[in-house]
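Notes, Module 5: Reading structure tokens.

Key idea: the token line is not a picture. It is a compressed description, and you learn to read it the same way you learned to read a sequence, by spotting repeated patterns. We will look at two proteins. The first is printed below with its tokens.
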Amino acid sequence: MEITVSKRFLRVPVKFDGTSHKFTFSENGTPVYKFDAVYTEENADAVYYADLRDYLGKTMTVTVEPECAFTPVFEDAMTPLTAEETVLRPQLHFTAERGWINDPNGLCFYGGQYHLFYQHNPYGRLWGNMHWGHAVSPDLFHWEYKEEAMFLDMDGAMFSGCAVVDHNNVSGLKEGDETPILFFYTCAGEKKSTQCLAYSTDGGKTLKKYDKNPLIDEIAPGNRDPKVIYDAKRARWLMALYFVERTYAIFTSQDLLHWELLQKFDLPGDDECPDLYPLTADDGRTLWVYSGAHDMYFVGDFDENGLYQPIQSVGQLSYNSQSYAAQTYYYEPGKPVIRFAWNRSDIPGAPFNGSMCTPTEMTLKKHGDRYYLSALPIKSTENLVVKSDKLDGFTLTHCTHELGSKTCRISFTVKEGGLTFSLYGLEMKLDKNGLTCGESILPRLKNEPMKVDIITDTNSVEIYLNGVANTVIAHVLDEAKPTFTIHAEDPVEVQNLTVSELSLRCVQ
């Protein structure tokens, strides 16, 4: 079928389940764009949109496999979702406007705004068709959706990657007065996986793929997810890259364009989505964290030969896989290290799915002879409090607190003893060994009080224990049980119990 792109958006009505159809768009006989969708022209569960802005006014050939009834309908803009379609949208956690979301990508601060790019399927609520979505925020909570940033092409899908603000133009890609932003990503083709570059010379508004891609050809099947950072002490750029199985790699560069393999090593218990960044611990020592998608991590430093060396056995921060593929914002000396993780909690029946976890500030804590990676909600989360009840130190066997919002933050400390507590029907237990919720068991720091911090939001519960262990529980909050309840067999001293209701409306 030949179509003339008369308006920017092509309507793509879909069913949430059914036979997937492959759409291929060709220009002058050359395929230029493709996507899969469970297309239907009757009784659609949702409507998505193909952004064809690069082809306005052009005549294209469209093939659909397997064949189905296809009537092209073009629109100037996407029709907003209805209130019914968005009733389950989380309030605190970032979601795509529509479609599937997973790994955070391209995290950088530029032009007074935090930029969040992310793995995005614009054509359904499940994984596939990997593009890069884009949103900006002044505070990491109030987000403005931007245009799709990178489209899959005939070489492959746009898998995960990172951003670098090239202040000194070492890449030579600067045009005009604007500092270039470089975006490293994996092009995941059917036959091989390569590391590629896109860049922006207009502050992240538009991304252009580098005309000399790939930067790194396939070195192992499925190698992916580059994370780039500057090593100021050794005046070099570093790229962390997933290699194969449990093996990760580090590459080096002087110009961000030409890369050499420095080393390979195993990160036990993990695979894909590496992150690499320096942190100054609470004892004043600066060390480097190397982590994977499952939040297993090394703490270490670079030796006299410039090779990364862990100084202790592998650590663990997250205790299930609901929080996944975390990445820190592009590192700026003297600023907090902030990171996002993908919240894998399902949003049932909605035309969007997946979200980001609460943004966290990363620190290193020395406890005994070991360093622990710590993640706690960023300080500005406190600005979202609209109501707070503080129940300072007391001894109890039972208490119940009514909750007026699904978006809450609850914190308290227990020095000794055990108790159970429930939150919107979700049961948890705290004892001398740590905190248990479902199959997640968060270990206690030896001889330390247990500081619990919890954030709830519509379809998930995030739990932090002393900052050094966390989990995300997929749990659609039970409106019939809007309570926080504590129960103990024997009297237990609970300190600094605070129950806060959160709202994005309180920040202008």
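Here is the second protein, with the sequence above and the tokens below, as before.
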Amino acid sequence: MNITSLPLLSFLIWTPILGGLALLFIDQNNKKLIKLLSLIFSLITLLLSILLLIYFDSSYYSLQFIEKVAWITNIDIYYYLAVDGFSVLFIILTTFITCLILLFNLSEDREQANKYMALFLILEGLLLGVFCAFDSILFYIFFEAMLIPLFLIIGIWGGTNRVYATIKFFIYTLFGSVLMLVALLYLSYQAGSFSIVDFYDLSLNLNTQILIFLSFLIAFGIKIPMWPVHTWLPDAHVEAPSSGSVILAAVLLKVGGYGMIRFLLPIAPDAGFYLNTFLIPLSLIAIIYISFVALAQEDMKKLIAYSSVAHMGFVTLGIFLVFNSIYATNSLSEIAHIGLQGAVMQMLSHGLISAGLFMCIGVIYTRTHSRMINKQSGIGQVMPLFSALMMFFLLSNSGLPGTSGFVGEFMVLISSLENNIIYAVLASTTLVLAASYSLWLGRRILFGDISGDLVAQMKQLKPEEFWPLIILVVAILILGIKPMLLLSFSEQSSLYIINAISKGY
């Protein structure tokens, strides 16, 4: 049997969703069974994604594993699933991180554990739906639906200000989504189809492209998030439980970058070039200004949240530089490719590093019940192994060569240098700033004198805490040394997008 003929993508999406729904019917007091089943469902999903990766042909560009079934026949809406090189990378990131989260959750003891675990599995399935959907309405449904599980995770199991954080998060993202829906409906009307691929063939005038571009930019810019629509993220991170912060930083933010690559680049390239004098400064502000904001934080979660905004600034910079690279001269198409691949690499790398950092903060919080930097120091004296792991993630966050954190930033910097030396100089300040707030955090909490009894009595890592951190360390090192292990999958897709933009120029 040919594996590519099986509805693998449907299995991938619906296995965690149905698994999550099944958990709701299990007695919430039977926590061992709940944790075991949630981990089994996530492992099955991970294995399915690995199978997808193995059988994906990266030697040429094409949509693969296509499933297209008529859904709402009156208006030609299809259940249309497929993957390309970008999709498979974000799928494997989602399944990998979710599996580690549920393994990490084995150490936690939460009320209504069945609902808590169920929401993570359902969220995983909806995220996978976003990365697989090639019908615009199906994409929109998955895009909107994924807000609900995270809304509930933060709203039910979050901190004291969780209501404020969830409402702010919901309003921001919903506002952007409404504009995106209008743009999708207009594009479908013009194309006579809801297929995203058909949107690429549309010939739109500049004014129309600008409106379409801005609609998508607001929707996906809020998701990333870009400055100045980033303020919901620190609030959401602070109030979210540790696992909620991990999935938010590691995967949900990447939906914004994925959406920009899927929609902005090929559909409205003229608008992208026209607006670039406005877009690139926004990315540079996120990189520089938000890094200084991170330096001023006294809450560990807020510091890493602002760090995420700064690092995702590199993602948007790599994406927006594609327009400059292509339109400046045809000889720069290779630079556009490097910038786009760098943006993808930065998203994958940040997914791994931020997951490790938020897990580390979760370990500290469960023992000291505090996220304040000034209330704990000397952790390295009582938990040396944990401190070594956390310092590794902090060094990776600062872009240490040999780690994945270096590769994506370096590729985007190359693209910046070839486009405009001023962009490169300004962007390179992150090498100093990221090291400043990362090492400052490490020095404050890991070194020095033991701050109090809670720190002095901190227990060593449990196996279910240790193994996710070790696995992330290995993944960051492998991706830092051999980035083409994953980037080779997106290479042809990246060239396809660039060629689609370059047509006629």
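Summary for the second protein:
- The two ends are 45 Å apart (CA to CA).
- The chain has a mean pLDDT of 85.
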